[in-house]
Structure formats: structure tokens, C-alpha cells
Prior knowledge:
The structure is a single chain. The protein is mainly alpha-helical and about 120 residues long. Helices cover about 70% and strands about 0% of the residues. The chain contains 8 helices and no strands. The chain has helices at about 5-10, 10-30, 35-40, 45-60, 75, 85-100, 105-115, 120. The protein is globular and about 40 Å long. Keywords: Heme, Iron, Metal-binding, Transport.
Amino acid sequence: MSDTTLYQRLGGDSGIAALVEDIVEAHLQNPAIQARYLPAKDDPAHFEELKGHLRDFLSAGSGGPATYRGRNMLEAHRGMNVNEVEYMAVLDDIQRVLERHGVDEPTRQEMLGITYSLKDEILHV
Ligand code: HEM
């Protein structure tokens, strides 16, 4: 176990903001899932709000100072009927962006565990 928080190992507020920008961009480029995110991009105010929610979710969930004010994972994804391929595409994008940002291997593994653990609230709901 590391004695630094996950939030610190992700680079704090600035690291998390940079990660979210690149994760969302990766989703928009990923043929398996881009159609899911394009409608949000077409509405700039909504798109900024979504990215803010993603930053706050990551900060709040990793020991950072933010308060997450978005919907819980079940409510946010209900009705989308996300499938396994889409779920893996999101997890893969996150892992690739973490690696590109120089996030260390144990921290990437921890993120993989956390993102996988949300499966029952997101997959086929
Ligand atoms: C561990 C995996 C995931 C996490 C942590 C996550 C997290 C989030 C969060 C925090 C929001 C914002 C909710 C809000 O603004 O109220 C969101 C929205 C969204 N998620 Fe996910 N998500 C994950 C997986 C997925 C997957 C696999 C898909 C489908 C490919 C997906 C599609 C979406 C879409 C389209 C929205 C935006 C809805 C809107 O336009 O407001 N998510 N997600």
C-alpha cells in the first residue's frame, strides 16, 4: 500500500483535469463508444458540465477535495443498456490515458479495480 492518496498519485486537481480531457477525447475517437458521447459534445454547456462531473467524481472517489454533484452511476447510465464491449472500451481508454500520462503501474491497477467494481451499476442497466 502506498502512503499517498490515489488523488495525489493521479496528480491532484491539475492531473485529474488533464486525465479527464484526454479520457473524454479518447472516447470520442473510439469507434466502439464514440456514438454514446457525441450528443453530449454537440451541446457545449452540457459537455462542460459532464467533464466537471467526471473531474469531481474522480477527485471525490480518490481522496481529493471535490464534492460530486452528478447522478449516481446507476442513475447516470440507466436506460443506456451498455454492453460488455463498450464497458471494456471505456476501461481500456482510461488505462491507456493513465499510461500516457506517466501514472505508475500500481496506481493504474488500482484504477482498473475501481472502474471494474462499478460494473454492476453501469453494465446492462
Ligand atoms: C467505470 C466506468 C464508468 C464511469 C466511472 C463512468 C462515470 C460517469 C459519470 C461520473 C458520468 C456523469 C453523470 C452525470 O453527469 O450526472 C457519466 C455519464 C455518462 N456515461 Fe459513464 N461511466 C463509466 C462507464 C460508461 C460506459 C461503459 C459508457 C458507455 C459507453 C458510459 C456512457 C456515459 C454517457 C453517454 C454519459 C453522459 C450522459 C450525459 O450526456 O449526461 N459510461 N459516466
